[in-house]
Amino acid sequence: MDKEDFFEISTLDLFPMGLCVFREDFEVIFWNTLLEEWSCIERGEIVGQSLLEYFPHLKKRGYPERIKQVAQGAPTAIFSHKLHRGLIPCPLPDGSNMPQKYSLTKFKKKDDEASYLLLCVEDVTDTEKHLKIYRELKENAESASHSKSNFLATMSHEIRTPMNAVLSCANLLLDNVTRQEDVKLLQTIQNSGDALLTLINDILDFSKIESGKMELEQQPFDLHFCINETLDLLKTKASDKEIKLSAKIDKDVPVWIRGDVTRFRQVLINLVGNGIKFTKSKVLVTVKAEALESNEHEILVSVVDDGIGMPEEAREKLFKSFSQVDASTTRKFGGTGLGLAICKGLTEAMGGEIWVESVKDEGSTFYFTIVAEKTVTGEAKKRQKLSEINPQMGKEHPLKILMAEDNTINQMVARKMLEKLNYRIDIAANGWEAIKALERQNYDLILMDQHMPEMDGVEATKRICGKWDKKKRPRIVALTASAFKEDRDRCFEAGMDDFLTKPIQIHEVVRVLQQCESRYGVFVEKQEVINFEALYNQFSGESEMLAEISENCLREIPKCMKAIERAVLEEDAGAIEREIHTLKGMVANFQADVAVEGALKLELLVRKKEMTQARSAFEDLKRTMEQLQIDLKRLIEKRVA
Amino acid sequence: MSSTFNLNDDQRDTLTEILNMGVGGAAEVLHQMMGEYIDLSVPNIYLLSSNSLTQEVGEDESEKVAVKLGFKGSVEGNAFLLFPAADAIRLAGLLLGENIDKNAPEAEWSETVTEVGNIVVNSVMGAVANTFNEVLHYSVPQFDIQTPGQFVEKNVSANKESTVVVAEADMKICSASMTAKILIIFSVSSFEHLEEHLDRVYAESVAA
């Protein structure tokens, strides 16, 4: 057979594929122009030769078997480009081989008994190029998403820290003001601060849901207690609007389930809160459960209101992902829009769904389901009234407490909060100081902030756990503003026993204190500062003068203390010394040795520039001066009597 | 099940043996190609009416990968290797030694999976044709990814009931296990020929 006229060569050369025809014994019969160009092997050279001579790798890897199968009548064989790179090597300028895919088919020529094998070679460079672009885009997107997460986490912390300070100070002030106007102003600060914090949390949550990074806890919790407690939280809001808020939990609903109590509560608060907003007279929460396979239950919660209802079009948009979080600043975050989108993400993450049924002017019912494993029955939690704070707790359950916190506002806030419970705390400004304090004396509890200069909370905890036996060392509770589970996990891995989320809530503090064993704490009663007996002896018969001096001091002491406080915050040693000098002069009149000692101690620490301890000493002095003022008022009353 | 779509025990055993020969051949080819030991076996087969195919392929919405090969001759129809898309991606990853994300574009893995399907189905139909001593003509293998509903709609005629041979092929590769389904949908007219071929082969093997 004349190999050159085997085919209508010009026709086959128009094919946009490389074509090679060979016999079963691998003798090449045809090699088209495209294959010539790609392989740099000329037709004249290879036709009549064995394919195996040019491409010896075809003797291995199952090629002979597959080629034989096709020759014997099996269907077309495909050789994919990723598994068979360089089957027919076609070098590119950069030295690599052209990516190709191949197919091998048997055919017979008319009027010819012999059968031939046709190898088609297809250039898939474009596919490879597109895949490479896709991979790069994916990597960039992942990197951008990671950067965005880091940015959000950092910004969240930077925004929360001062926000917490604002809110905590407003909370503390509320305890001390009586003027209605002042109360209203402080409540405005609180509400706005809460709204801002909620917004930050929502943005973080939404971002996590969007990037598929929402991680849920899987811990046992009392579902009934959670639902009732949540409704308790919203009862005030409901009664302000004269709305009746009630819940009905089916007896089939398991009490203890495994899941994320915070996120479950979040969805419920969102829906019930909306219900209260839009309803006319009532909001009813009903809870049902259906047993599924293997101890799991589907919990169905419905929140029914009798409000304005909503039309079909509005319902369709309600849970839609709010995808414009990164858009221009003119975009407003409608509170409801983000909240429901988050509820959708959370319920889906909890294995459930969320939907709404509504009739215009009659009301709406929001439904959501979660799937949870019923867990070991625990004791039903007693419902604690959140507002009940026991001011005698420090006396009944004394604890030696150290706080490691560099932020002076946070130090002050924590101190005030614990004073309400009749506890004193010592302060360390960073991890190093905390360890040094532990070396000097034993503590029952350390409240450990995370981000501190010189040594952070995690490092300090690791060292404390390494240095002291668990029985001897204090219980370590992390103070964290972080919303991320990874950060909290880091705390536990370092050896921390518990955590408190900022802004610190007093009932959480109570919980932490209750769980701490009292080993080293000693309660010290508040003592009178003035030695009345000695004073009366000194001012015998001159009670009127004593009273006048007392009144004078009562006016001047607060001003003086405020000036010292400012100077302490500003670390203005000169100003502190001047004011202490004035204060000492005043209190020296009253046989108030404790006050004098306190002032002297502070002066000494300031001179030695030990500012952290000076701040601690100032707090002690403040308490002393508060008691002194109480004692002075007694003196004045005695005069009047 | 209609008696039209039943094979007797001998016929079923013969067909199982042919399919096992086919997948055995495929396993050998894959082993030579990859250097990995690949275990492929077909423990049993059964027959269905094409009307019941939906239940067989699955009534959920998760996507399945199908490599399809049409054949014509004294028996005609379509042969498929069918597996869940997630397993297909996993298989491609194992063969390529890459970690392929389940959301990766098809271009990353579909060709590799098509080749595996091609090897298995070719080998199976090759075994059928050789054992029956028949010449069959084949279409070019095709890759498709679709839901079970879409698969049935595309490959089964609603009007003409046909016989489906189903074989579950257990695959073990690089210590990962997965199960693929080999489906051969015979046209109604060729089912009788299938029975005749199987009876002849059985008789010959007994005589031998």
Compact description:
The complex is a heterodimer of chains A (641) and B (208). Chain A has 22 helices and 17 strands.
Notes on the structure:
The complex is a heterodimer of chains A (641) and B (208). With 641 residues, chain A is an alpha/beta fold. Chain A has helices at residues 9-12, 33-39, 43-46, 51-54, 63-71, 125-176, 180-210, 223-240, 261-278, 312-318, 335-349, 393-396, 408-420, 431-440, 457-467, 485-494, 506-514, 532-538, 543-569, 573-587, 593-607, 611-640, and strands at residues 18-22, 28-31, 77-79, 100-108, 115-123, 219-222, 244-249, 256-259, 282-291, 296-305, 354-359, 363-374, 401-404, 425-428, 445-449, 475-480, 498-501. In chain A, the strands form three sheets. In chain A, strands 6, 7, 8, 9, 10, 11 and 12 form a seven-stranded mixed beta sheet that branches. Chain A has a five-stranded antiparallel beta sheet with strand order 2-1-5-4-3. Chain A is elongated. Chain A starts with 8 loop residues before the first helix and ends with a helix. Chain B has six helices and eight strands; from the N terminus they run H-E-E-H-E-E-H-H-E-E-H-E-E-H. Chain B has helices spanning 9-34, 53-57, 85-96, 110-132, 148-155, 188-207, and strands at 38-41, 45-49, 64-72, 77-84, 137-138, 142-146, 163-173, 176-186. Chain B starts with 8 loop residues before the first helix and ends with a helix.
